[in-house]
Amino acid sequence: MGKSMKFTDLDQYLFGQGTNYEIYKKMGAHPTTYRRKKGVYFAVWAPNAQSVSVIGEFNGWDEEANPMKKVGPIGVYEVFVPGAKIGQLYKFFILGAHGEKLYKADPYANEAELRPGTASRITDITDYKWKDATWIKNREKFDEKVEPMAIYEVHPGSWMRHPGRDDDGFYSYRDLAKSLISYVKEMGYTHIELMGISEYPFDGSWGYQVTGYYAPTSRYGTPEDFAYLVNECHKNKIGVILDWVPAHFPKDAHGLVEFDGTATYEYADARKGEHPDWGTKIFDYSKNEVKNFLIGSALMWVENYHVDGLRVDAVASMLYLDYGKEDGQWVPNIYGGNKNLEAIEFFKHINTLILGRNPGVVMIAEESTAWPKVTGPVEEDGLNFSYKWSMGWMHDFLDYMKLDPYFRKDNHNKMTFAMSYNESEKYILVLSHDEVVHLKCSMLNKMPGLEGDKFKNLMAGYAFMMGHSGKKLLFMGQEFAQVQEWSEARELDWYLLEDPNHKKVQDWVKALLHLYTSNPCMYEQDTTWAGFEWINADDRDRSIFSFVRKSKDGKNNLLFVINFTPVAREDYRVGVPKNKTYKLVLNSEDPKFNGTDKNRKESYKAVKKECDGRDYSIAYPLPAYGVAVFKF
Fold first, then answer.
1. Which of 31, 142, 267, 279 lies in disulfide reach of 360, CB 3.0 to 4.6 Å?
2. 313: annotated active-site residue
3. pTM listed for this prediction
4. Active site residue 524
5. Of the listed 113, 284, 313, 526, which one is catalytic?
Protein backbone atom coordinates (compact mmCIF):
# COMPACT_ATOMS: atom_id res chain seq x y z
CA MET A 1 0.00 0.00 0.00
CA GLY A 2 1.34 3.47 -0.83
CA LYS A 3 2.78 4.95 2.37
CA SER A 4 0.32 7.83 2.28
CA MET A 5 -2.67 5.49 2.38
CA LYS A 6 -1.84 3.44 5.49
CA PHE A 7 -3.50 4.63 8.71
CA THR A 8 -0.18 5.31 10.46
CA ASP A 9 0.75 5.62 14.12
CA LEU A 10 0.72 9.40 13.67
CA ASP A 11 -2.76 9.24 12.11
CA GLN A 12 -3.97 7.22 15.09
CA TYR A 13 -2.41 9.64 17.56
CA LEU A 14 -3.94 12.71 15.87
CA PHE A 15 -7.33 11.01 15.49
CA GLY A 16 -7.24 10.18 19.20
CA GLN A 17 -6.53 13.85 19.92
CA GLY A 18 -9.33 15.02 17.59
CA THR A 19 -6.83 16.89 15.41
CA ASN A 20 -6.40 14.70 12.31
CA TYR A 21 -7.79 17.56 10.23
CA GLU A 22 -7.46 15.90 6.82
CA ILE A 23 -9.07 12.69 8.04
CA TYR A 24 -11.23 12.63 4.89
CA LYS A 25 -8.10 11.78 2.90
CA LYS A 26 -7.55 8.63 5.01
CA MET A 27 -10.91 7.28 6.20
CA GLY A 28 -13.49 6.01 3.73
CA ALA A 29 -12.68 4.59 0.29
CA HIS A 30 -9.69 5.78 -1.77
CA PRO A 31 -8.62 4.47 -5.19
CA THR A 32 -4.85 3.75 -5.11
CA THR A 33 -2.14 1.34 -6.30
CA TYR A 34 -0.49 -1.22 -3.98
CA ARG A 35 2.22 -3.65 -5.09
CA ARG A 36 1.53 -2.63 -8.70
CA LYS A 37 -2.13 -3.54 -8.42
CA LYS A 38 -4.89 -1.00 -8.83
CA GLY A 39 -7.64 -1.10 -6.27
CA VAL A 40 -9.22 0.74 -3.37
CA TYR A 41 -8.02 1.35 0.19
CA PHE A 42 -10.80 1.26 2.81
CA ALA A 43 -10.62 2.51 6.41
CA VAL A 44 -13.33 2.73 9.08
CA TRP A 45 -13.51 3.41 12.83
CA ALA A 46 -15.42 0.74 14.80
CA PRO A 47 -13.71 0.58 18.22
CA ASN A 48 -15.96 -2.06 19.84
CA ALA A 49 -16.52 -4.33 16.83
CA GLN A 50 -15.53 -8.00 17.05
CA SER A 51 -14.59 -7.91 13.37
CA VAL A 52 -15.12 -5.80 10.23
CA SER A 53 -15.07 -6.65 6.53
CA VAL A 54 -15.85 -4.64 3.42
CA ILE A 55 -18.58 -5.97 1.12
CA GLY A 56 -19.60 -4.66 -2.28
CA GLU A 57 -20.03 -5.14 -6.00
CA PHE A 58 -16.31 -6.03 -6.28
CA ASN A 59 -16.72 -9.20 -4.14
CA GLY A 60 -20.37 -10.17 -4.68
CA TRP A 61 -21.24 -8.75 -1.23
CA ASP A 62 -19.36 -11.65 0.34
CA GLU A 63 -18.96 -11.06 4.07
CA GLU A 64 -15.77 -13.15 4.29
CA ALA A 65 -13.97 -12.11 1.10
CA ASN A 66 -12.24 -8.97 2.39
CA PRO A 67 -11.76 -8.95 6.16
CA MET A 68 -10.26 -5.72 7.51
CA LYS A 69 -7.25 -5.50 9.82
CA LYS A 70 -7.40 -3.55 13.08
CA VAL A 71 -4.55 -1.03 13.21
CA GLY A 72 -3.73 -0.24 16.80
CA PRO A 73 -5.90 0.18 19.90
CA ILE A 74 -7.96 3.16 18.67
CA GLY A 75 -10.22 0.86 16.66
CA VAL A 76 -9.56 1.81 13.03
CA TYR A 77 -9.82 -1.07 10.53
CA GLU A 78 -8.23 -1.00 7.07
CA VAL A 79 -7.88 -3.14 3.96
CA PHE A 80 -6.71 -2.80 0.34
CA VAL A 81 -9.02 -4.50 -2.18
CA PRO A 82 -7.33 -5.09 -5.55
CA GLY A 83 -9.68 -4.74 -8.51
CA ALA A 84 -12.26 -2.61 -6.70
CA LYS A 85 -12.93 0.51 -8.73
CA ILE A 86 -14.64 3.88 -8.96
CA GLY A 87 -18.43 3.67 -9.29
CA GLN A 88 -18.87 0.41 -7.38
CA LEU A 89 -21.17 0.20 -4.36
CA TYR A 90 -19.99 -1.02 -0.95
CA LYS A 91 -20.82 -1.28 2.77
CA PHE A 92 -19.02 -2.36 5.90
CA PHE A 93 -20.11 -5.67 7.45
CA ILE A 94 -19.56 -5.32 11.19
CA LEU A 95 -19.81 -8.07 13.76
CA GLY A 96 -20.90 -5.92 16.67
CA ALA A 97 -19.77 -5.92 20.30
CA HIS A 98 -22.63 -8.24 21.26
CA GLY A 99 -22.51 -10.42 18.16
CA GLU A 100 -24.93 -8.33 16.05
CA LYS A 101 -24.55 -8.47 12.27
CA LEU A 102 -24.54 -4.86 11.04
CA TYR A 103 -24.52 -3.65 7.43
CA LYS A 104 -23.34 -0.04 7.55
CA ALA A 105 -22.83 2.66 4.96
CA ASP A 106 -19.40 4.29 5.20
CA PRO A 107 -19.55 7.32 7.55
CA TYR A 108 -16.68 8.88 5.54
CA ALA A 109 -18.01 7.96 2.07
CA ASN A 110 -17.60 10.69 -0.53
CA GLU A 111 -20.57 9.48 -2.57
CA ALA A 112 -23.72 7.52 -1.77
CA GLU A 113 -26.20 5.38 -3.69
CA LEU A 114 -29.36 7.28 -4.68
CA ARG A 115 -32.13 6.77 -2.14
CA PRO A 116 -33.91 4.48 -1.39
CA GLY A 117 -30.59 2.59 -1.81
CA THR A 118 -28.35 2.88 1.27
CA ALA A 119 -24.91 1.75 0.09
CA SER A 120 -21.84 3.94 -0.36
CA ARG A 121 -20.15 4.43 -3.74
CA ILE A 122 -16.42 4.47 -4.50
CA THR A 123 -15.31 7.78 -5.99
CA ASP A 124 -12.28 10.07 -6.17
CA ILE A 125 -12.78 13.66 -5.08
CA THR A 126 -9.14 14.73 -5.40
CA ASP A 127 -8.81 15.36 -9.12
CA TYR A 128 -11.34 18.11 -9.91
CA LYS A 129 -9.71 20.88 -11.98
CA TRP A 130 -10.70 24.08 -10.18
CA LYS A 131 -10.78 27.38 -12.08
CA ASP A 132 -11.70 29.75 -9.23
CA ALA A 133 -8.22 30.86 -8.07
CA THR A 134 -9.10 34.57 -8.42
CA TRP A 135 -12.18 34.20 -6.23
CA ILE A 136 -10.27 32.23 -3.57
CA LYS A 137 -7.46 34.82 -3.55
CA ASN A 138 -9.92 37.72 -3.21
CA ARG A 139 -11.83 35.84 -0.53
CA GLU A 140 -8.84 36.11 1.80
CA LYS A 141 -9.57 39.84 2.07
CA PHE A 142 -13.28 39.32 2.87
CA ASP A 143 -14.11 41.04 6.17
CA GLU A 144 -17.46 39.82 7.47
CA LYS A 145 -18.09 43.09 9.33
CA VAL A 146 -17.89 45.44 6.35
CA GLU A 147 -18.83 43.41 3.25
CA PRO A 148 -22.33 43.15 1.74
CA MET A 149 -24.11 39.82 2.19
CA ALA A 150 -27.52 39.17 0.65
CA ILE A 151 -28.21 35.43 0.73
CA TYR A 152 -30.71 33.50 -1.39
CA GLU A 153 -31.68 30.37 0.57
CA VAL A 154 -32.35 27.49 -1.83
CA HIS A 155 -33.62 23.94 -1.54
CA PRO A 156 -32.16 22.55 -4.80
CA GLY A 157 -34.81 19.84 -5.27
CA SER A 158 -37.75 22.25 -5.31
CA TRP A 159 -36.43 25.47 -6.83
CA MET A 160 -37.28 24.32 -10.35
CA ARG A 161 -38.04 20.90 -11.77
CA HIS A 162 -38.04 19.35 -15.24
CA PRO A 163 -41.67 18.64 -16.21
CA GLY A 164 -42.91 15.38 -17.69
CA ARG A 165 -40.11 13.08 -16.56
CA ASP A 166 -40.49 9.62 -15.00
CA ASP A 167 -38.14 10.45 -12.12
CA ASP A 168 -38.42 13.37 -9.66
CA GLY A 169 -37.44 15.85 -12.36
CA PHE A 170 -34.75 17.35 -10.11
CA TYR A 171 -32.45 19.95 -11.61
CA SER A 172 -28.95 18.48 -11.48
CA TYR A 173 -26.01 20.39 -10.00
CA ARG A 174 -25.06 21.23 -13.59
CA ASP A 175 -28.59 22.41 -14.44
CA LEU A 176 -28.49 24.65 -11.37
CA ALA A 177 -25.11 26.00 -12.49
CA LYS A 178 -26.85 27.24 -15.64
CA SER A 179 -30.18 28.58 -14.41
CA LEU A 180 -29.83 29.31 -10.68
CA ILE A 181 -26.60 31.31 -11.00
CA SER A 182 -27.94 33.56 -13.77
CA TYR A 183 -31.13 34.20 -11.77
CA VAL A 184 -29.27 34.99 -8.56
CA LYS A 185 -26.88 37.32 -10.40
CA GLU A 186 -29.66 39.19 -12.14
CA MET A 187 -31.59 39.62 -8.88
CA GLY A 188 -28.53 41.00 -7.09
CA TYR A 189 -27.85 38.42 -4.38
CA THR A 190 -24.24 37.99 -3.24
CA HIS A 191 -24.50 34.41 -1.89
CA ILE A 192 -26.51 31.21 -2.34
CA GLU A 193 -27.21 29.12 0.75
CA LEU A 194 -27.93 25.51 -0.22
CA MET A 195 -30.09 23.30 1.99
CA GLY A 196 -29.66 19.54 2.12
CA ILE A 197 -26.34 18.97 0.34
CA SER A 198 -24.86 16.43 2.81
CA GLU A 199 -26.38 13.03 1.93
CA TYR A 200 -29.61 12.14 3.75
CA PRO A 201 -32.17 9.32 3.36
CA PHE A 202 -35.57 11.02 3.84
CA ASP A 203 -36.68 13.83 1.49
CA GLY A 204 -39.10 15.16 4.10
CA SER A 205 -36.23 16.01 6.49
CA TRP A 206 -35.04 18.62 3.90
CA GLY A 207 -31.50 17.41 4.57
CA TYR A 208 -31.45 18.10 8.31
CA GLN A 209 -31.14 14.40 9.22
CA VAL A 210 -27.81 13.49 7.66
CA THR A 211 -26.23 10.08 7.10
CA GLY A 212 -23.42 11.18 4.75
CA TYR A 213 -21.37 14.00 6.27
CA TYR A 214 -18.69 13.66 3.59
CA ALA A 215 -20.89 13.18 0.51
CA PRO A 216 -22.88 15.64 -1.61
CA THR A 217 -26.33 14.11 -2.08
CA SER A 218 -26.59 11.95 -5.20
CA ARG A 219 -30.13 13.29 -5.85
CA TYR A 220 -28.62 15.97 -8.09
CA GLY A 221 -25.50 14.29 -9.48
CA THR A 222 -21.93 13.31 -8.63
CA PRO A 223 -19.34 14.94 -6.34
CA GLU A 224 -17.67 16.28 -9.47
CA ASP A 225 -20.98 17.84 -10.58
CA PHE A 226 -21.29 19.52 -7.17
CA ALA A 227 -17.73 20.87 -7.44
CA TYR A 228 -18.66 22.22 -10.89
CA LEU A 229 -21.62 24.12 -9.38
CA VAL A 230 -19.40 25.74 -6.72
CA ASN A 231 -16.75 26.54 -9.34
CA GLU A 232 -19.33 28.21 -11.62
CA CYS A 233 -20.73 30.24 -8.71
CA HIS A 234 -17.24 31.55 -7.97
CA LYS A 235 -16.57 32.37 -11.62
CA ASN A 236 -19.74 34.48 -11.45
CA LYS A 237 -18.70 36.14 -8.14
CA ILE A 238 -21.40 34.35 -6.12
CA GLY A 239 -20.47 32.89 -2.73
CA VAL A 240 -21.71 29.44 -1.63
CA ILE A 241 -22.88 28.63 1.91
CA LEU A 242 -23.97 25.13 2.96
CA ASP A 243 -26.25 24.05 5.78
CA TRP A 244 -24.27 21.79 8.11
CA VAL A 245 -25.79 19.71 10.91
CA PRO A 246 -23.41 18.65 13.72
CA ALA A 247 -26.24 18.62 16.30
CA HIS A 248 -27.84 15.22 15.72
CA PHE A 249 -28.29 12.34 13.30
CA PRO A 250 -31.16 9.96 12.38
CA LYS A 251 -31.62 6.39 13.57
CA ASP A 252 -31.58 4.78 10.10
CA ALA A 253 -30.08 1.28 10.43
CA HIS A 254 -27.42 1.88 7.74
CA GLY A 255 -26.28 5.12 9.38
CA LEU A 256 -24.20 6.13 12.40
CA VAL A 257 -26.54 4.81 15.10
CA GLU A 258 -24.90 2.12 17.30
CA PHE A 259 -22.31 1.82 14.58
CA ASP A 260 -20.30 -1.04 16.09
CA GLY A 261 -23.09 -2.45 18.26
CA THR A 262 -22.49 0.22 20.91
CA ALA A 263 -23.04 3.96 21.15
CA THR A 264 -20.10 4.92 18.92
CA TYR A 265 -21.00 8.38 17.60
CA GLU A 266 -23.77 9.20 20.11
CA TYR A 267 -23.80 9.71 23.88
CA ALA A 268 -24.46 6.32 25.51
CA ASP A 269 -26.81 7.76 28.16
CA ALA A 270 -30.19 8.32 26.44
CA ARG A 271 -30.70 11.44 28.59
CA LYS A 272 -27.75 13.01 26.77
CA GLY A 273 -27.89 11.07 23.50
CA GLU A 274 -31.54 11.37 22.43
CA HIS A 275 -33.69 14.24 21.13
CA PRO A 276 -37.20 13.23 22.24
CA ASP A 277 -38.89 15.79 19.95
CA TRP A 278 -36.95 14.91 16.81
CA GLY A 279 -36.42 11.16 17.33
CA THR A 280 -32.70 11.58 16.59
CA LYS A 281 -29.37 10.81 18.28
CA ILE A 282 -27.02 13.48 19.68
CA PHE A 283 -23.30 13.33 18.87
CA ASP A 284 -20.99 12.60 21.82
CA TYR A 285 -18.84 15.75 21.93
CA SER A 286 -16.71 14.25 24.72
CA LYS A 287 -15.12 11.78 22.26
CA ASN A 288 -12.19 13.17 20.30
CA GLU A 289 -12.81 10.76 17.41
CA VAL A 290 -16.41 12.02 17.08
CA LYS A 291 -15.29 15.64 17.17
CA ASN A 292 -12.65 14.78 14.56
CA PHE A 293 -15.34 13.20 12.36
CA LEU A 294 -17.37 16.45 12.46
CA ILE A 295 -14.39 18.81 12.13
CA GLY A 296 -13.07 16.75 9.21
CA SER A 297 -16.44 17.05 7.48
CA ALA A 298 -16.53 20.84 7.85
CA LEU A 299 -12.95 21.16 6.61
CA MET A 300 -13.67 18.91 3.62
CA TRP A 301 -16.57 21.11 2.46
CA VAL A 302 -14.48 24.26 2.85
CA GLU A 303 -11.07 23.07 1.69
CA ASN A 304 -11.90 20.34 -0.84
CA TYR A 305 -15.12 21.83 -2.26
CA HIS A 306 -14.12 25.52 -1.88
CA VAL A 307 -17.34 26.35 -0.02
CA ASP A 308 -17.37 29.91 1.41
CA GLY A 309 -19.26 29.29 4.61
CA LEU A 310 -21.24 26.84 6.74
CA ARG A 311 -24.54 27.70 8.38
CA VAL A 312 -24.60 25.54 11.48
CA ASP A 313 -28.09 24.22 12.20
CA ALA A 314 -29.71 23.89 15.64
CA VAL A 315 -26.84 25.41 17.65
CA ALA A 316 -29.08 25.99 20.69
CA SER A 317 -29.91 22.27 20.84
CA MET A 318 -26.17 21.59 21.22
CA LEU A 319 -25.47 24.29 23.80
CA TYR A 320 -28.25 23.34 26.25
CA LEU A 321 -28.40 19.88 27.82
CA ASP A 322 -32.12 20.38 28.53
CA TYR A 323 -33.07 21.62 25.05
CA GLY A 324 -36.54 20.22 24.22
CA LYS A 325 -36.46 17.98 27.28
CA GLU A 326 -38.57 17.60 30.42
CA ASP A 327 -37.24 17.09 33.95
CA GLY A 328 -35.72 13.61 34.21
CA GLN A 329 -34.90 13.55 30.47
CA TRP A 330 -31.51 15.28 30.82
CA VAL A 331 -28.34 15.17 32.91
CA PRO A 332 -26.74 18.35 34.39
CA ASN A 333 -23.06 19.13 33.72
CA ILE A 334 -20.35 18.72 36.38
CA TYR A 335 -21.32 22.10 37.87
CA GLY A 336 -25.00 21.18 38.05
CA GLY A 337 -25.93 23.51 35.16
CA ASN A 338 -27.72 23.02 31.83
CA LYS A 339 -24.85 24.02 29.52
CA ASN A 340 -23.17 21.35 27.41
CA LEU A 341 -19.53 22.22 28.22
CA GLU A 342 -18.24 19.75 25.61
CA ALA A 343 -20.31 21.33 22.81
CA ILE A 344 -19.12 24.81 23.85
CA GLU A 345 -15.49 23.66 23.59
CA PHE A 346 -16.28 22.03 20.23
CA PHE A 347 -17.60 25.31 18.78
CA LYS A 348 -14.63 27.32 20.01
CA HIS A 349 -12.27 24.77 18.48
CA ILE A 350 -13.95 24.32 15.12
CA ASN A 351 -14.67 28.00 14.47
CA THR A 352 -11.15 29.10 15.40
CA LEU A 353 -9.69 26.31 13.28
CA ILE A 354 -11.79 26.84 10.14
CA LEU A 355 -11.57 30.64 10.16
CA GLY A 356 -7.84 30.49 10.96
CA ARG A 357 -7.03 28.05 8.15
CA ASN A 358 -9.36 29.70 5.63
CA PRO A 359 -9.39 33.52 5.85
CA GLY A 360 -12.61 34.98 4.42
CA VAL A 361 -14.73 31.88 5.05
CA VAL A 362 -17.70 32.42 7.39
CA MET A 363 -19.29 30.26 10.10
CA ILE A 364 -22.94 31.13 10.76
CA ALA A 365 -24.93 30.09 13.82
CA GLU A 366 -28.63 29.35 13.73
CA GLU A 367 -28.98 30.00 17.48
CA SER A 368 -32.45 30.77 18.77
CA THR A 369 -31.80 31.90 22.35
CA ALA A 370 -30.05 34.83 24.02
CA TRP A 371 -26.80 32.88 24.55
CA PRO A 372 -24.13 35.59 24.97
CA LYS A 373 -21.21 36.24 22.59
CA VAL A 374 -22.11 33.71 19.90
CA THR A 375 -20.03 35.86 17.53
CA GLY A 376 -17.63 37.02 20.26
CA PRO A 377 -13.93 36.07 20.27
CA VAL A 378 -12.80 33.00 22.19
CA GLU A 379 -10.52 35.20 24.35
CA GLU A 380 -13.70 36.77 25.76
CA ASP A 381 -15.36 33.37 26.16
CA GLY A 382 -17.25 33.78 22.89
CA LEU A 383 -18.04 30.97 20.44
CA ASN A 384 -16.26 32.77 17.57
CA PHE A 385 -18.96 32.41 14.89
CA SER A 386 -18.80 34.98 12.08
CA TYR A 387 -22.56 35.68 12.21
CA LYS A 388 -25.67 34.74 14.13
CA TRP A 389 -29.13 34.46 12.61
CA SER A 390 -31.27 37.18 14.19
CA MET A 391 -34.25 35.09 15.27
CA GLY A 392 -35.38 37.83 17.68
CA TRP A 393 -35.65 40.38 14.87
CA MET A 394 -37.45 37.83 12.68
CA HIS A 395 -40.12 36.97 15.30
CA ASP A 396 -40.79 40.63 16.16
CA PHE A 397 -40.90 41.65 12.49
CA LEU A 398 -43.36 38.88 11.54
CA ASP A 399 -45.53 39.52 14.60
CA TYR A 400 -45.81 43.17 13.54
CA MET A 401 -46.34 42.52 9.83
CA LYS A 402 -49.22 40.06 10.50
CA LEU A 403 -51.21 42.67 12.39
CA ASP A 404 -54.12 44.60 10.98
CA PRO A 405 -52.62 48.08 10.43
CA TYR A 406 -55.09 49.50 12.96
CA PHE A 407 -53.33 47.55 15.74
CA ARG A 408 -49.77 48.26 14.62
CA LYS A 409 -49.57 51.48 16.64
CA ASP A 410 -49.75 49.43 19.85
CA ASN A 411 -46.88 47.19 18.69
CA HIS A 412 -44.59 49.88 17.26
CA ASN A 413 -41.65 48.81 19.46
CA LYS A 414 -41.55 45.38 17.78
CA MET A 415 -39.93 47.10 14.78
CA THR A 416 -37.48 49.21 16.78
CA PHE A 417 -36.40 46.77 19.50
CA ALA A 418 -33.77 44.86 17.46
CA MET A 419 -31.62 48.00 17.08
CA SER A 420 -31.33 48.23 20.88
CA TYR A 421 -29.26 45.00 20.96
CA ASN A 422 -27.81 45.21 17.44
CA GLU A 423 -24.27 45.77 18.72
CA SER A 424 -24.24 42.61 20.86
CA GLU A 425 -23.63 40.24 17.89
CA LYS A 426 -22.90 40.29 14.15
CA TYR A 427 -26.38 39.51 12.82
CA ILE A 428 -28.00 38.19 9.66
CA LEU A 429 -31.68 39.14 9.31
CA VAL A 430 -33.46 36.02 8.11
CA LEU A 431 -36.77 35.14 6.51
CA SER A 432 -35.96 31.46 6.02
CA HIS A 433 -37.69 28.26 4.89
CA ASP A 434 -38.76 27.64 8.50
CA GLU A 435 -41.14 30.63 8.35
CA VAL A 436 -43.12 29.45 5.30
CA VAL A 437 -43.97 25.83 6.23
CA HIS A 438 -46.15 23.90 8.71
CA LEU A 439 -49.23 26.14 8.34
CA LYS A 440 -47.21 29.30 9.03
CA CYS A 441 -48.26 30.62 5.56
CA SER A 442 -46.11 32.06 2.80
CA MET A 443 -44.76 35.59 3.35
CA LEU A 444 -47.57 36.98 1.19
CA ASN A 445 -50.32 35.19 3.11
CA LYS A 446 -48.96 36.38 6.46
CA MET A 447 -49.85 39.91 5.37
CA PRO A 448 -53.16 41.45 6.43
CA GLY A 449 -55.82 42.91 4.15
CA LEU A 450 -57.24 42.15 0.75
CA GLU A 451 -55.04 41.00 -2.11
CA GLY A 452 -53.75 44.41 -3.22
CA ASP A 453 -52.94 45.39 0.37
CA LYS A 454 -51.07 42.14 0.97
CA PHE A 455 -48.60 42.92 -1.83
CA LYS A 456 -48.05 46.49 -0.65
CA ASN A 457 -47.56 45.35 2.95
CA LEU A 458 -44.98 42.82 1.81
CA MET A 459 -43.10 45.43 -0.25
CA ALA A 460 -42.98 47.79 2.73
CA GLY A 461 -41.78 44.94 4.98
CA TYR A 462 -38.99 43.96 2.58
CA ALA A 463 -37.86 47.59 2.36
CA PHE A 464 -37.67 47.79 6.17
CA MET A 465 -35.66 44.55 6.30
CA MET A 466 -33.25 45.69 3.60
CA GLY A 467 -32.71 49.07 5.26
CA HIS A 468 -32.21 47.71 8.78
CA SER A 469 -28.71 46.94 10.11
CA GLY A 470 -27.57 43.36 9.53
CA LYS A 471 -26.81 41.08 6.58
CA LYS A 472 -29.83 39.60 4.74
CA LEU A 473 -31.29 36.19 3.93
CA LEU A 474 -34.50 35.48 2.02
CA PHE A 475 -35.84 32.02 1.19
CA MET A 476 -36.54 31.19 -2.45
CA GLY A 477 -40.02 31.98 -3.77
CA GLN A 478 -40.63 34.74 -1.25
CA GLU A 479 -38.95 37.23 -3.58
CA PHE A 480 -41.94 36.97 -5.94
CA ALA A 481 -44.58 36.50 -3.22
CA GLN A 482 -45.19 32.76 -3.59
CA VAL A 483 -48.80 32.11 -2.48
CA GLN A 484 -48.58 28.48 -1.34
CA GLU A 485 -46.46 27.40 1.57
CA TRP A 486 -43.19 25.81 0.51
CA SER A 487 -43.09 22.04 -0.02
CA GLU A 488 -39.98 20.03 -0.85
CA ALA A 489 -42.17 17.86 -3.10
CA ARG A 490 -42.83 20.40 -5.90
CA GLU A 491 -41.16 23.31 -7.65
CA LEU A 492 -41.91 26.95 -6.87
CA ASP A 493 -44.95 28.52 -8.56
CA TRP A 494 -43.00 30.33 -11.25
CA TYR A 495 -46.18 30.80 -13.31
CA LEU A 496 -47.20 33.50 -10.79
CA LEU A 497 -44.76 35.86 -12.51
CA GLU A 498 -47.32 36.22 -15.29
CA ASP A 499 -49.42 38.16 -12.75
CA PRO A 500 -48.32 41.85 -12.55
CA ASN A 501 -48.70 41.83 -8.75
CA HIS A 502 -46.13 39.06 -8.32
CA LYS A 503 -43.85 40.50 -10.99
CA LYS A 504 -43.81 43.87 -9.21
CA VAL A 505 -42.73 42.24 -5.92
CA GLN A 506 -39.92 40.45 -7.73
CA ASP A 507 -38.86 43.72 -9.42
CA TRP A 508 -39.06 45.48 -6.05
CA VAL A 509 -36.84 42.91 -4.32
CA LYS A 510 -34.39 43.15 -7.21
CA ALA A 511 -34.31 46.95 -6.88
CA LEU A 512 -33.77 46.66 -3.11
CA LEU A 513 -30.94 44.15 -3.59
CA HIS A 514 -29.16 46.37 -6.13
CA LEU A 515 -29.67 49.38 -3.85
CA TYR A 516 -28.14 47.32 -1.01
CA THR A 517 -25.06 46.09 -2.86
CA SER A 518 -24.29 49.41 -4.57
CA ASN A 519 -24.41 51.62 -1.46
CA PRO A 520 -21.68 51.00 1.17
CA CYS A 521 -23.82 52.77 3.80
CA MET A 522 -26.11 49.72 3.71
CA TYR A 523 -23.48 47.23 4.89
CA GLU A 524 -20.21 48.89 5.96
CA GLN A 525 -21.22 49.69 9.53
CA ASP A 526 -23.81 47.03 10.35
CA THR A 527 -22.62 46.30 13.87
CA THR A 528 -22.43 49.85 15.21
CA TRP A 529 -24.69 52.86 15.72
CA ALA A 530 -22.29 54.79 13.48
CA GLY A 531 -24.05 53.19 10.50
CA PHE A 532 -27.68 53.65 11.57
CA GLU A 533 -29.64 56.59 12.95
CA TRP A 534 -33.35 56.75 13.73
CA ILE A 535 -34.90 59.97 12.43
CA ASN A 536 -38.23 59.12 14.00
CA ALA A 537 -38.62 55.80 15.81
CA ASP A 538 -41.66 57.04 17.74
CA ASP A 539 -44.30 57.93 15.13
CA ARG A 540 -46.47 55.11 16.44
CA ASP A 541 -49.86 56.75 15.81
CA ARG A 542 -49.19 56.89 12.08
CA SER A 543 -47.04 53.70 12.04
CA ILE A 544 -44.33 55.40 10.00
CA PHE A 545 -40.61 54.70 10.47
CA SER A 546 -37.80 56.94 9.25
CA PHE A 547 -34.08 56.24 9.58
CA VAL A 548 -30.74 56.94 7.92
CA ARG A 549 -27.98 54.53 6.87
CA LYS A 550 -24.50 56.08 6.85
CA SER A 551 -21.21 55.12 5.22
CA LYS A 552 -17.82 55.26 6.94
CA ASP A 553 -16.58 58.24 4.92
CA GLY A 554 -19.88 60.12 5.34
CA LYS A 555 -20.27 60.52 1.55
CA ASN A 556 -22.86 57.79 0.94
CA ASN A 557 -26.08 58.06 2.94
CA LEU A 558 -29.67 56.88 2.46
CA LEU A 559 -32.84 58.11 4.16
CA PHE A 560 -35.69 55.57 4.46
CA VAL A 561 -39.32 56.58 5.08
CA ILE A 562 -41.80 53.67 5.36
CA ASN A 563 -45.55 53.86 5.96
CA PHE A 564 -47.18 50.73 7.44
CA THR A 565 -50.82 51.86 7.17
CA PRO A 566 -53.25 52.20 4.24
CA VAL A 567 -53.55 55.96 4.99
CA ALA A 568 -51.71 58.30 2.58
CA ARG A 569 -49.95 61.30 4.17
CA GLU A 570 -50.09 64.01 1.54
CA ASP A 571 -47.55 66.26 3.23
CA TYR A 572 -45.45 64.04 5.46
CA ARG A 573 -42.63 66.07 6.98
CA VAL A 574 -39.49 64.22 7.96
CA GLY A 575 -36.46 65.65 9.77
CA VAL A 576 -33.15 65.38 7.93
CA PRO A 577 -29.61 65.36 9.31
CA LYS A 578 -28.19 67.92 6.86
CA ASN A 579 -29.16 70.95 4.80
CA LYS A 580 -28.82 69.11 1.49
CA THR A 581 -30.83 68.09 -1.54
CA TYR A 582 -32.43 64.69 -1.09
CA LYS A 583 -32.69 62.65 -4.29
CA LEU A 584 -35.49 60.07 -4.48
CA VAL A 585 -33.82 56.79 -5.55
CA LEU A 586 -36.58 54.30 -4.73
CA ASN A 587 -40.34 54.84 -4.62
CA SER A 588 -42.83 52.00 -4.15
CA GLU A 589 -45.44 53.84 -6.26
CA ASP A 590 -43.11 54.12 -9.25
CA PRO A 591 -44.88 52.83 -12.42
CA LYS A 592 -42.13 50.21 -12.83
CA PHE A 593 -43.51 48.58 -9.67
CA ASN A 594 -47.05 48.85 -11.00
CA GLY A 595 -47.54 52.12 -9.10
CA THR A 596 -49.49 55.22 -10.08
CA ASP A 597 -46.87 57.95 -9.50
CA LYS A 598 -46.12 59.17 -12.99
CA ASN A 599 -44.95 62.71 -12.23
CA ARG A 600 -43.26 62.54 -8.84
CA LYS A 601 -40.39 64.97 -8.18
CA GLU A 602 -36.94 63.45 -8.05
CA SER A 603 -35.26 65.99 -5.74
CA TYR A 604 -36.33 67.50 -2.40
CA LYS A 605 -34.37 70.44 -0.98
CA ALA A 606 -34.17 70.58 2.79
CA VAL A 607 -35.76 73.67 4.36
CA LYS A 608 -35.01 75.24 7.75
CA LYS A 609 -38.05 73.92 9.52
CA GLU A 610 -37.65 71.94 12.72
CA CYS A 611 -38.97 68.37 12.70
CA ASP A 612 -38.08 65.14 14.52
CA GLY A 613 -35.56 67.07 16.64
CA ARG A 614 -33.63 68.27 13.57
CA ASP A 615 -33.28 71.84 12.35
CA TYR A 616 -33.96 70.91 8.72
CA SER A 617 -36.67 68.81 7.09
CA ILE A 618 -38.30 67.84 3.81
CA ALA A 619 -41.99 67.35 3.00
CA TYR A 620 -42.96 64.33 0.95
CA PRO A 621 -46.38 63.02 -0.18
CA LEU A 622 -46.20 59.54 1.36
CA PRO A 623 -48.66 57.06 -0.22
CA ALA A 624 -50.58 54.33 1.61
CA TYR A 625 -48.04 51.62 2.49
CA GLY A 626 -45.55 53.90 0.76
CA VAL A 627 -41.79 53.48 0.77
CA ALA A 628 -39.44 56.30 -0.18
CA VAL A 629 -35.64 56.09 -0.14
CA PHE A 630 -33.55 59.22 -0.63
CA LYS A 631 -29.84 59.58 -1.31
CA PHE A 632 -27.83 62.50 0.09
1. 142
2. yes
3. 0.96
4. no
5. 313
